[in-house]
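INFO batch 0412 | record 1 of 1 | parsing
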Amino acid sequence: MKKCFARFACAVLALALLAAPASALTVPEALELLEERYYFDIPESAYEAGSLDELFQQLGDPYTYYMSREEYEAFLADVEGEVNLVGIGAVIRLTQEGLLVDSVVSGGSAQESGLQTGDLIVAVDGVSCVPAQQGHRELLVGEEGATVEVSVLRNGETKEYTLTRRALHIPNTEFKLLEGGVGYIDCNSFGTDTGKAFLRALEENDGKVDAWVLDLRNNAGGYTDSAMEMLEGVSGPGRYFYYQVKDGGVGAFERTGGAVSKKPLIVLVNGESASASEAVAAGVRDTGRGVVIGSRTFGKGVGQNMLDETTDPEYFDGDGLKVTTARFYTAGGTTTDRIGVIPTLLVDDADVEAVVAALTGGGKETSNLCIMPEAHPFYVDPEADSEVLAALMEAIPPQVRVYYRGGAFQECSAAEAAAKLGLDYDSRWFDDVADSRYARSINAMGTYRLLEGTAPGRFSPKGQLTRAQLCVMLSRVLNVTWNGPSRFDDVAGDAWYSGAVNAMAELGLVEGMGGRRFEPGSPLTQEQFLTIMGRMARYLNFAVDNFGAVFEEEDVSLPMSKWLELEPFSDWARSGVAVLAWGREYALGERAGDMLFAPLEEMTPSAPILREEAAAGMYEVLWGLGILP
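INFO prediction complete | emitting tokens
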């Protein structure tokens, strides 16, 4: 499986950027296009820009920018993800010990000569590569047909290889049949034909496999249609993607075809999985179709359109303008903007492949351990290394069911299973919350690394929260920070909470107390906390946001009994409380529960919010919207 796909075209692209000619698009023309289609408001300072560079700098949107003809051609080639190169056929990473072979390419001389993942190239043509530098990597590429001598260190022994440089074509989507009946599909980007290649792999190989693994690590996205074809292939008909445009209108991508495969599915992601990759991973998560494993994704929840000579011939001639035109939402109506996709099993990048191999390597008759996220049982390989099992146990939250065979499979906790297996592992659960009514929610948040304790292994559940402390907790959950000047006079720029407070204010989740004061040290009450949680739910889900907007306009039909439940709360708090209490029911059509940490009748609006209540409240929102299991 891949760890990191090093694109050999990067140097060529860099040279193309340096040599780019002056832009053909003018600043007034760019402003005309932005006024019509740009999703966000255009700042007044942008209208004073003297160049395109200055204009896009004023927008502050990293996804909206102009490309010359050369840059646009390179961009389109990168989206398609097809790579043509001349080399030995190995993906290389620079390390202090040498050139580390991350993977070998099918058809390359590295594969034919027997190079393996994990090998260290310590010399090329007699030149030492320890420690490895960029120039050493370049020694491996050159004229097609020429040979290169490499010294390879493996298991403490050095061996010499003569490798031939060849022309290689690497598609953006590849299928491999792994041991144990695992079908592995590696997708590096979403080009125009990616969805079809994925469906073809399913159709041709589904009868040969017991489970599928879709690898979207380091996949920065591409065309949405291809991503939707993938979801259709594993989930069948449905709406898996929504988008909101400049005027507030919401549209959807709907698929009507049947599923090609219903076999268990694992999706691999990491911090470089973005955009369309996040739509696929979230679609699998939202529908319960499979399990997402890896680290939290990048968090790109806005979509762009390409404007070029095919869309606007009067403005372009081979060049292009990439413009953010929409904010998008996943199958469950949630955004991936900033928060990304939080995997079902949050596993460190270095352990992902071994953990997946362990999950798919066992059988019902031979395994002593079964992990059951969603409705998918995975029988763990009984021969798996103890360190791999420890990494797996560390990633299991309380909500994921674990079964250990002691004669027959019996449900237990991850800690109990680890004890039976004799494993020593670093639990992410907290030692001091067992007696809390919110222990499961707190430990779930800890497993996903969304909470920090007050000391190693301790959460201090009965402690109270200040306004600043809650902002720090929320910034971790939403994966945001702030680097600009402070919005508040009493929040110093170097304060430990400054970035978090300002980030939450920028999102509209918290407000000041008047006169540019935030009062960071003030205790937070239950109704203040619920108000902020209601805003967070609205930020994360467009359907809940619509309900909140209707409620604020006093145009929602609630039974009198529900209006009476809101009476103990201050007028300014009722909208947020209502969103948490009935947002799922009215906006999402689900009547099974709310997003409150406790029933309304048990709350005391003016009482201080406790750390355990805040942790549970955040979890209830994330669980209620389908972001966490």
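INFO post-check: The longest strand covers residues 320-330.
INFO record closed
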